[in-house]
Backbone:
């Protein structure tokens, strides 16, 4: 691809797995699967002709301050997903960039906060009359009692996680004993509130969107479960997302969604734009939802700054719409500069 006319100084900021080496040499890590998104973005930025510096962070915010002072970037490509192992702290990384008045890609602390807190997100969506599963939140230490309005089967997940951490076949519960047990598990093992939701049966759809004010909706992706044992509910778990051998055994595949009948595709696009706006997502985002057998659209969660690995849903959807990966990276960069103005 031809380099862009305007070359920027871009700082690619990402999370390192543990204290980063003082010389910030990640050449070995960047060749591994765990750093695919980082490697793909860095490669695209270089291909576009930008001047790229990289910074890995773990638990030291001062590294960000020092780097930006020493080498002021035009824009930060923010790929951090947690800080000191805390997923919700990605909002503080964005907050630091905001305080330093440097443009950065993706969502602001507001969008990151609203989406990462799945309970708060659902309260907000309900205000906008967007359908979400009925739910209750259980903080560690509080009594675990199921309100009668919450009907089995229920689905229990950590309230502030992503990438399906804490989601397994045991997340699906059909009686009070397993309900309590799973909530305790989230409290004890994951140290955060648990979210209990009505289980929504239906096709699982991922919708990728790009933009700040005007939004572009990319072709939908769908997870299909070809070989789940008879009668077993079909939903994504940590294993079904990341364990290739398990995916093969269970016939789990991510594909482009076959179109829905009766204008449902248009309704999905409209709802996803409304979710994106309600939850203050900026730049790029992905909405996870289910479409029930009665064609109801139920939003499960919104993901600001979704993974940009070329092989992951967001890039796949964008490329299907004819946006090459470097073009996509350039668009995300431009959106960051636009929202900083
Ligand atoms: N209320 C629900 N009903 C049915 N399936 C659900 C529900 N909530 C979550 N799931 C299943 O669990 C997966 C992960 O949940 P999600 O809320 O998207 O969290 P994550 O941030 O881990 O992706 C979903 O992709 C879906 O398959
Ligand atoms: Mg999800």
Residues:
């Amino acid at each position: 691809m031809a380099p862009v006319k305007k070359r920027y100084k871009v700082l690619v900021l990402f999370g390192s797995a543990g204290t980063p080496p003082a010389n910030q040499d990640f050449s070995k890590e960047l060749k591994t699967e765990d750093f695919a998104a980082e490697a793909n973005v860095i490669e695209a930025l270089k291909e576009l002709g930008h001047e790229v510096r990289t910074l890995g962070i773990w638990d030291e915010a001062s590294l960000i301050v020092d780097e930006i002072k020493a080498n002021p970037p035009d824009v930060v490509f923010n790929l951090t997903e947690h800080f000191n192992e805390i997923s919700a702290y990605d909002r503080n990384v964005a907050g630091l960039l905001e305080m330093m008045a440097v443009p950065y890609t993706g969502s602001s602390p507001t969008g990151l906060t609203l989406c990462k807190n799945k309970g708060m997100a659902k309260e907000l969506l309900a205000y906008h009359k967007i359908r979400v599963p009925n739910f209750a939140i259980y903080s560690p230490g509080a009594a675990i009692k199921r309100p009668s309005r919450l009907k089995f089967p229920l689905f229990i997940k950590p309230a502030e996680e992503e990438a399906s951490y804490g989601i397994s076949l045991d997340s699906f519960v059909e009686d009070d004993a397993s309900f309590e047990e799973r909530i305790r598990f989230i409290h004890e093992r994951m140290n955060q509130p648990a979210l209990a939701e009505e289980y929504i049966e239906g096709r699982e759809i991922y919708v990728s969107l790009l933009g700040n004010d005007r939004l572009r909706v990319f072709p939908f992706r769908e997870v299909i479960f070809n070989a789940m044992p008879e009668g077993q509910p079909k939903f994504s778990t940590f294993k079904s997302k990341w364990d290739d051998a398990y995916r093969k055994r269970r016939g789990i595949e991510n594909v482009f969604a076959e179109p829905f009948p009766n204008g449902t595709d248009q309704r999905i696009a409209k709802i996803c734009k409304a979710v994106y706006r309600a939850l203050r997502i900026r730049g790029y985002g992905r909405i996870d939802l289910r479409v029930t057998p009665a064609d109801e659209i139920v939003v499960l969660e919104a993901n600001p700054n979704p993974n940009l690995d070329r092989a992951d849903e967001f890039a796949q959807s964008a490329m299907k719409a004819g946006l090459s990966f470097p073009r996509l990276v350039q668009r995300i960069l431009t959106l960051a500069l636009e929202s900083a103005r």
Notes: The longest strand covers residues 203-211. Residues 133, 155, 157, 161-164, 167, 197, 199-200, 204, 235-236, 288, 300-301 surround adenosine-5'-diphosphate (ligand 1) (CB under 6 Å). The two ends are 28 Å apart (CA to CA).
